[in-house]
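DATA SHEET
Item: assembly model
Revision: 1
Owner: S.N.
Input lines:
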Amino acid sequence: MGACVAARQVLRWSVRSATSSALFSPLRFGCCHVQPLCISRRLLCSSGSDCILQSNHHGVTDLSGKHAAELSLRSLVNMGFTDSQAEQIYETVSKAKGASSAKHALSALSSLFALGLNASTVGKLLEKCPQLYTIKESQFQQRIGNLRRQGLGEGSLQRVVSHYPQILVVPMKKINNVGMFLREKCLFTVQQVTEILRDSPAIIEEDLGELEYKFQYVYFRMGVKQAEMVKSKLFRFTLNEVRSRHCFLERRGLYQTPDKKGQTLIVNPKLNSILTVDQDTFLAQVAKASAEEYDVFQRLMAREWQAEEHQENFEAVSDDDEEEKDEENEGKKAYMRRKKK
Amino acid sequence: MALFMDTGLLLRKVNNLRCFTPRRNRVKEKWAATRAKYPPTTLALQHFDAAYGIQLGHLWPSVRAALLCERKYGALVNNFSDDDVLSDLQDQGCRDFISDTDLEVHLEQISAVGVEGESSDLSTKTSDISHQQLSPLQISRNIKCLVFPRGDITRFKPAKPDKFGLLGYYLMDAASVLPCLALDVQEGHNVLDLCAAPGGKTLTLLQTQCLGFLCVNDSSISRTLRLKRVLHSYTPKPFLSGDNLRITSFDGTKWGEIERDTFDRVLVDVPCTTDRHSLVEDDNNIFSRSRTGERRRLPQLQLELLLAGIEATHPGGEILYSTCTLSQTQNQSVVEQAIHLAQENHSIHLQVVDLKPLTHMFRKTFHFAPNLHLGEMVIPHLAANFGPIYMCKLKRLT
């Protein structure tokens, strides 16, 4: 971030002293602080979307030049949006209250373009996640920077943002908490945490308690280690999905919890082959059962789990003075406490 | 207890009678603080995986999953109750599986049944060889048992007493009704229920309301008490009088000596490893290590009970052997041996009665094991989680 600021300063000075240079011609229209940043991004980033950036800059700087925060349809189309997208953006911004809404929208658009996303993607993102309009410029940059620190480099960052724009809406603390939780409680490596954020960004919206239970279920009850969890994109699936499929296999005798030494009497199917396939393939190839059986099974399980939760709530009330001091087994004991009949 | 000086024997002074009480009747004083490493339910599951994995083959995973999940109940309608139980339950979505079949069953007349495919009108199509072999089907009458449709997991609410204090229906495994249907109790028959407790099948037999005399026996006194309680909750006093019913707690294996050649119908629902119960309940589980000897003697006990039942039937009468286990050693093997020994030792000639018509009749409700060479078996399935029930019907010819 420091380098960017420095670069920005350098450019400002060079800009002030420059006369007319083809490269810096857009700057004649004003000294909006957005511009140097865009350009510094262009210099520092090595993404190959130079020409898109160039044309987007023209569009953005055109707007900023007007100062009157006019976000007209024509300017939107100039940026590269389709007619329908431009209309939609215009409508959303007009409906939003507050004088600075248009300015926010502007900064949002420019920040998104600065990431290197093309107009159609940006249009889709804004449609999917209208809160993007309300993010302040500084927040935007901070959050992007934070994501980069989490390990999401070029390419990954753009991919995550385009698939899950909400990741820019949540405060940095939330993302950092999740990252810390995964590293410290679940003992994932830093690279694994980055991969999880990249493949399953929706994880940031999950309750940490629920996340912990899901992790413990897969780790202890299924005996699956971290590397396999990451490979099978575990955090894309809900706890119930994982539980249903696992219990179905377990009760059919096709999956066994490994013993202390990690051994089983049968070969367990890999987590990948259980989760990432669609239901029909799962039933046909892994479970070798009919859809009717699985449907009844899921309903029976839902009832069983509900009864367990009831029981658990009842016991938790009367269980408050127990304390676990053993650090090593704490994770497992907490899980077993919740799980016990 | 004092020392018996005059007998010349020195007995150690005994503080209490604990060492003289059989282990199963002792009160548990000390309760374990931690769970056992391999509880009886786990031992049972391991045992079944080994045995039934081979016996049932590719069917075993489905059966295993069904056994480990919540079972499905049926509501046996109490014909003695005042309330209109049938329509109440039907409003909730159940149907009586006994009358809800594709086939018509004439209880008095003999009719050949051979319905092919989905056709609702009856025609004696005997194009299929298996249909030609279907002998006429006669089942005990008046029995009504309601179940929720296939795949429906709704639970029954507990039965409520009517104005006379009798309960409207009895919740039991719907498959347990099948042995009573297969027994084909007819008007005025004298029936013996050799191992009756806890009383579900006895109650079912009473629903026919056409019995001459019913003898009910169970070797365990505590279980017989439970049986009596069940009967009192469901049956009016007149039907439980000494003219119609006799409840005893004798050793069932002795019946050949007590009442030889007496009964028209005998139901031998032997004690077994109760597969479903053994996988779920740790208490009093027959797979616990302390009961290993008892479990290994089961087939022998079952054989003796069946032979006693055979001896108690008069020639021309019928015996129905049933268990609630999938194990071949407790099912087919026992029946085969009994037939052989009856011939050898008592010159009793027995004929196996084909129950295929029964399985054909109820194939919509239950899953039956295919290709059993002797008898029929209901196997659990997640969508129809009844059973396991094995039954084999024998007719005494001599």
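QC remark: Chain B touches chain A through 16 residues (CB under 8 Å).
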